Amino acid sequence: MKKLILAIAVAACGGGTSSSPPPAAPASSSPPPPESAEKPAATSETSDVVAQAALAEQYDAGKKVYVDKECASCHGDHGEGNPKNPAVIGPGALPEQAPAQSKLRKGLAFETAKDVLEFVKAKMPIKHPGTLADNDAAAVTSWILSESKVAIDRPLDASNAAAVKLR
């Protein structure tokens, strides 16, 4: 019975009537077949998708921090600022050099996300500076920067913020 099933399976697969096993593949040091080469791309693609999902979560958390910590009371509902407080979102937000009238940012340049993150962590919220948890400071910074069209491709944190250029 087993021989009959094997013969049917071989014939169905185009194997003919020979019962000898297929020749063994020769041992070689040649590169793996193309299908193996696709796996790293798929892994990289998967990694990018996971990073984008984590970044979207961080944006959502940042927007929540902005609301919960009442950032809008100084910087506006959309981060647009007002005559007393600077914009944190938009084309004029977060200039590299602090404006002359700036009190909190005096002498601080914003060249990278790290500069903004450190400032937010140390100086915000204005009535309780330095009270944001690291992940909250990173989340609100990530959200503000993303709303200002700064390219961020991974969740922002202290280890990668210096690599994110604002301009």
Provide the descriptors you would attach to this structure in a database record.
mainly alpha; 5 helices; Cytochrome Bc1 Complex, Chain D, domain 2; 167 residues
Describe the overall structure.
- This protein is an all-alpha fold.
- It has a single domain, classed as Cytochrome c-like domain (Cytochrome Bc1 Complex, Chain D, domain 2, Orthogonal Bundle).
- Helices cover 45% and strands 0% of the residues.
- It has helices at 2-12, 34-68, 72-75, 113-123, 134-147.
- Mean pLDDT is 82; it is low at 1-23.
Radius of gyration, rounded? 28 Å
**Which structural class do you get from the secondary structure elements?**
mainly alpha
| pLDDT < 50 runs, ≥5 residues | 1-23
- Any guess at the CATH architecture? Orthogonal Bundle
Number of helical elements? 5
Question: In CATH terms, what is the fold-level topology?
Answer: Cytochrome Bc1 Complex, Chain D, domain 2
Helix content: 40-55%
Strands, total number? 0
